[in-house]
Design a protein that fits this description.
This protein has 179 residues and is mainly α. It contains 9 helices and no strands. 75% of the residues lie in helices and 0% in strands.
Length: 179
């Protein structure tokens, strides 16, 4: 899919460093086709961010739909969302918010929507774990979910800056063990 290829290039290079020529080449289309199809580089970037959101939310839905304990799945989710051990790119949404957050309200809106939805997924998983006796029922699930999301965002920055996977794994472990 062309938007997936564009997303990958934006993820690797960032918005400002990615040229329309590179995007057209990566997607296998002419530069004119890029503008005719997507309108602008910025419009394509926003579509790529929305696609990334869809992919992440589908991943989480599949991960948490299966039966079984929540603890390991929350750890897997945090690790995957931050990119720990997978690559040195971090999270495309965190990268976009860091790069354009002070100047682009639409990027902020898309990022906020994804982060809010991830927090909701975490909260429901924690509540499920509390109901099953896996997690402390006295801990507020909403606050714990917010802390987990903040940790994922921070881990994403650590991953992008070359943070050691072993150190990042201890952050994930501490978050999940604190439940």
């Amino acid at each position: 899919m062309a938007v997936d290829k564009a997303m990958d290039l934006f993820w690797l290079q960032g918005y400002a460093a990615t040229t329309p020529q590179e995007l057209a080449g990566e997607m296998g289309i002419g530069k004119g086709s890029l503008y005719n199809t997507f309108g602008s580089k910025h419009a394509l970037f926003l579509r790529a961010l929305r696609r990334y959101s869809e992919m992440r939310l589908e991943y989480l839905a599949d991960l948490f739909a299966a039966p079984g304990p929540m603890r390991p799945r929350l750890g897997v989710a945090m690790t995957a969302l931050a990119g720990v051990g997978e690559h040195r790119r971090g999270c495309v949404m965190v990268n976009a918010a860091a790069e354009l957050g002070t100047t682009d309200d639409e990027v902020n809106r898309i990022a906020d929507e994804l982060f809010t939805q991830i927090e909701g997924v975490f909260e429901r998983a924690i509540e499920h774990g509390q109901e099953s006796g896996e997690f402390d029922k006295n801990r507020r699930a909403d606050i714990a979910a917010r802390q987990m999301l903040a940790s994922v965002i921070g881990l994403s920055v650590l991953v992008k800056s070359g943070g050691q996977p072993e150190i990042c794994a201890t952050v994930v472990e501490g978050c999940v063990d604190g439940l």
